[in-house]
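One record is kept unedited as follows:
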Amino acid sequence: MMTIQRIFSKPLLNKIVILTGLVNGFLLWSLSVHAVDSPIKSDEVIIFLPEVGYPLADGKQWNLHVHGWIYEPDWSSDFSIAFRTLFGLEEYRLEEEKYESIAQERRKLFFVDNEGGKRIPIRIGAKIFVLDQSGSNGHFYGNLLVTAPEVEQWQDKATHTIPFTAITRENDNRQFSGKIYLLDAKGVSVISDIDDTIKVSEVHDKKALLANTFSRPFVPVPQMAQFYQQLATQEPGTTFHYVSASPWQLYPALTEFLETYHFPLGSFHLRLFRWKDSSFFSLFQSPQPHKIETIEHLLQWCPQRRFMLVGDSGEQDAEIYAMIARKYPERIVHIFIHEVPRQNGNKLDYREVFKGIPTTQWTVFTDATSLLAK
């Protein structure tokens, strides 16, 4: 019997083998994409919340964090009256009506049907990952162990991020995209509060805070965007992480704020909030546990990186950052505190707050213009 080697020359046979391998590879990729049973229904929406990825100790693998939220919007209900009454915004009714489109946009994610029990598949490059099951609050997570060559292949070098998309059902052409901010083993990370640090919130006045959060256009703290842009260019690989007690429902509005006023983009670390469980009370509790836990995680994930901490005097940022600086003295490059009015009218005794921390390691300012001159 005549063998295949006698029919084809060796060079031609090699080309056939290579071509066959490529075709099979493509078919396997196609099958792997379409074989995934996407649980995302046509009336459900996903928001991916920007997370971080970092190399493990050996440098050969990276841990990529993914965080998303799946829910069904409720476009029919008007919760204006209930929302104003619950949060004491009745006196801002006329102002809210003036900015009705803003108020409606900010409120709508507080009144959605969260979808639990969903395992969302995502595609990074040509690879498929199925994430952990979503909880009753609709939030889902994933820690993906990948190789350094994969990170090199997948990353967008202009933004130093890895983009990805959710896999939807056949005939569902919607695209739900997210990104993972990559933290090199060494470099500087800027951890920033939001309220009264980069955005005027008036935390000391609870009614003004609620109106600034839910009814009024967001206003930047003067010159802070320029200061952050300056920090971003001081050292290559500088990253930004926005750690706030604000609820995740405000993420779309907050990221639009960053883009509008040209703040550097970065990962977000906000608080979970849901009407139906104890997280409802998180809006009225101290931000300290959430902020400390988040900052310590970033420090532990990236043991060779150095950190700048930026906050304000209105909500325990100075005390939290001082505690972190004492615990990790070699890791904290500098602390910046924006001094704002406090509820009791008293100013912090900063020398007491930062006792034991060199004065060269912390700065208190009322006008960010003074920081631009440094």
